[in-house]
Amino acid sequence: MSAPPKYSAAAAAPPRLRSDDDDDDDDDDDGNDDEETVDEEFISKSAGPVTMIPDVFTQLPPVRDDLETDTSEAQDETVEACLPFLAGQDDLFEYNEHGVPRINREKHIKFLHNSLGRLPGGFVAADASRPWFLYWSLSALTMLGEDVSHYREAVAETARGMQNDTGGFGGGGRQLSHMATTYAVVLALALVGGEEAFEVVDRKAMWKWLCSLKQADGGFQVCMGGEEDIRGAYCAAVIITLLNLPLDLTPESPAWTGDSSANLFTGLARYVRRCQTFEGGISGQPDAEAHGAYAFCALGCLALLDDPRRVIPKYLNVPRLISWLSSRQYAPEGGFSGRTNKLVDGCYSHWVGGCFPLIEACLSPAASSGQGGQADDSDRAGLPPVSESLFSKEGLIRYILCCCQDQSKRGGLRDKPGRLSDAYHSCYVLSGLSSAQNQWVLAGSDDKSATGVADPAWTVLPPLEDVQIFDKRDRIRPIHPVYAIPDENQRAIRSYFLAKDSEGFF
Amino acid sequence: MLALSRCVAFPFRSPIQPPSPLENPHHRPSKPTKATTMPPKGKAAPKPKGTEATKPPSVSTSAPVAPPSTTTTTTTTSAPSPGPSTVSERSQQRFDESRPYEAAREKSGLSSLAPAEQVAWISSQLARSSAARARLGPKAQRELWRHVNEASLPIRAPKTKPSSGSWGKDRAGQYIGGYTAARFDDRAAKRISLTALEIASRAFKHTRERARKGLLDPLSREPVVLAENETDQEKNRRRQMAALRRELYGQTMGQFEQDPEWDDVVPIPQDEPEMALAAIAYPASYAEAISYLRAVMQKKEYSPRCLRLTEHIISMNPAHYTVWLYRASNIFAMKLPIPDEIEWLNGVALEHLKNYQIWHHRHLLVDNYYPSIADDAEKVSQFAASERAFLAAILAQDTKNYHVWSYRSYLVGKLGTWGADELAAIEAMIADDVRNNSAWSHRFFLVFSNPAHTTPGTAATDPDPAVPRDIVDREVQYAMDKTYLAPQNQSPWNYLRGVLAKGGRRLASVEPFAAEFVAGLGEVDEAELVRSTHALDLLAEIYAEKGEREKADLALRRLAEKWDRIRVGYWEWRRKCLDVAG
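^ inputs. structure came back:
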């Protein structure tokens, strides 16, 4: 049913033009004459530059239920909190003609540099996730165009203190090595780049440690004695490919079969398959609820195992997955939620938003060159390629720029209005913005790399010349769709170790 | 010598000093008798150097209030000084008063003094120098002491001229010389107490070490034993030491440093380079605990004290995965009763709702515990019931907590609790909030992963012929019933599709149901009414399934144009799918 809008005039307004010098706050008008008020305003004040905001971002969705539950109340509150920002009514912003604010680079950059500095005692709860602060902050700074190579020595020193002799990196000195913190350290090293950074990693110990986490069912534990989940699968695939580690198993590995029939990647895609739920999304472990963050882990992991055109349809029900991913985008917010009937959150701009380049690549036709590109239409399960985008890039960009920027002195990016910014959200909101602003395409598969891992060639298309809702200067640096760092950074670290291993790893 | 006693005491008896209002009434006066036995030398003179530990002579309180006129220094040129307000001033006054004619002599020369004063000055110089006196004959010496007695000359005197700054500063950066006498005495008393405690503490450690080595007491020839209460006394002593160190020097003595039980562990502090990034300014208590954790983990110690240490750290930082795994190792190594640990964990879980590690810990506990009860159906059922009760309590606080639900599905698989109780618990949660998708997901797992009537290893989106028809019917009906409560709620729609897929049924089998929520599709304006975009989405797929391409396309177009515009890109792609399929 089409429920009557219960929010402010702004929310109820038809597609409306808003003049820049409009300083009337019609936000809290009440009564039935709201629409008239807005119309009059539009007529009388439309002389100046005008802003155009499609009403899908200023109105409640056309289909709403009357039944109120905890879930619908939380959803209504979120919409109410977002609407003033989306409707160009926040005093702290300057909106462009599309009703979209500029990205506040300087404040965010300052916030992120601070996140790398000395953290106050209240951060004690982050004591086991310090490598994440390195990755989040360096990645966000990089996407904002900052050169982070001057952090090289400091990152190398910090990482060294977190590395264990038995392989891998812990959350801090003398903490158990963990898949997630190791992933974060390796990406941080790749972001600062250079031999000094790369050489921190004890790759032999790392390889042995990964072997000890590899399970007989194909998945990876996140640490010795820790849980086995899809984060482990994705992080392992990233670590192995970036560091050019051998796939052979040690006899100490729980997945060791007594011969060379199994390797680090054996059964990994099958494990990912077990995490797809009846909803079509992906859960953290088999038998749990579909969740946005795990969807990215699943697709990222598969995309490292083989050509996405081949491996994704082979192991996942793609139509159900796309249906679920697409359902994550809400109006009027424009952002993504992480689960069915949960709220939008800026971080899913990456976790869910970052799935679309991978899915779109999986639906793209194989390169005509035919070089190693065996993937043909049958691999794509008979699904057509995507013409423009499977999701509303405009919606996501609006949500990010309007709702996720902390416009106070603090800077940084956030979950949603009313929440504090932090390094985590800064990183993933910007990653999402980057993938919404830039278009990646997948060429035919390259020949298999030295590790036997498929190495599909991702290339970013030049920026579109047609009108964008964001300012040209606000384009965020493109990041690799799987590694989530700039392409040149992932290339640099991989080619460094490839060259190093030309005389053998062992 | 008796005669001398009066004047020996002089420098300590400043008659011009009024009692300070700040004076401690319980202050213990110095013993004047002690001074009487002293030789007329400068040995006992106060030493106002930096060595403030010297017990200050505090005669002032015991001195009768004497009017300034009684002083023997009235003849000097210097005016009587007012009473000292600080210990630094007091030292200066004592110094000056011990040298009655010195200031005048320094200023104008010996000849400027009156003859009697000259004699007095010379006498005091001689009286203080045994070497000079040795050169005097017996008569001259008698003469000297007569002068000294008659003029009541001070004999003992501070050797060193007080200098500013020599007192040092206290923890607050305050100059100690600026203390009042009472405050200074209080500080000195505390320093003495601390020293005494430290000596006793060393003695305790010594005894404990000898007891540990089984040595014999040299006197009694009995083995040295450490009495039960001695450890408690030592704990009490360390508390006092910590309080004194903090008060006197601003030093913190950590909780573990204070605990005699931890004396054998050498903590391993964080040793990060100065340039380390995102370094946390740890609170001292956290840093200390972690430094002990590193030490015991390194030596792989599993003991009750380690268990307590992990609890302490978890209370400060429950996200510290390393400490959780170490805690589990302790429990398993000591074979502690798992139910006790679960009981403890319940409190921690309720306190830290968003924590991830708690649930993996619980998982490890159950893995360890289950084999011990697996053969006893009664015990398993009791345990399942208590777990269910706890999960209900925690999900009441946070209905969609991902980690709790993941643990719940693990638990069902582990204990085999696929039955009616679990299903009823989930139905209650769906009744509370029909939009709780976590509960819907769990129901799907309960029904379609139950090994009693499903094929293990079947993918969630694939059909499973093993599932009985009546179960599929029941679940279809359940989803439909719940859909009517709020047709735009996607959870039951996703559930319905999931059930149909499992049952291998065509989507078209629910076409009449889906059609209930859509009226007048494609008609103008108000005639078209969609009460659920999910119904329309499903209808589009049903039409495609039936080969009704145009109808499918219309449904998708209306979704893109009007009913679910944010997903326009997806609906457009779905329209392209129709062409491929066709």
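Confidence is low (pLDDT under 50) at residues 1-78 of chain B. The longest helix of chain B spans residues 181-213.
thumbs up if we can close this ticket
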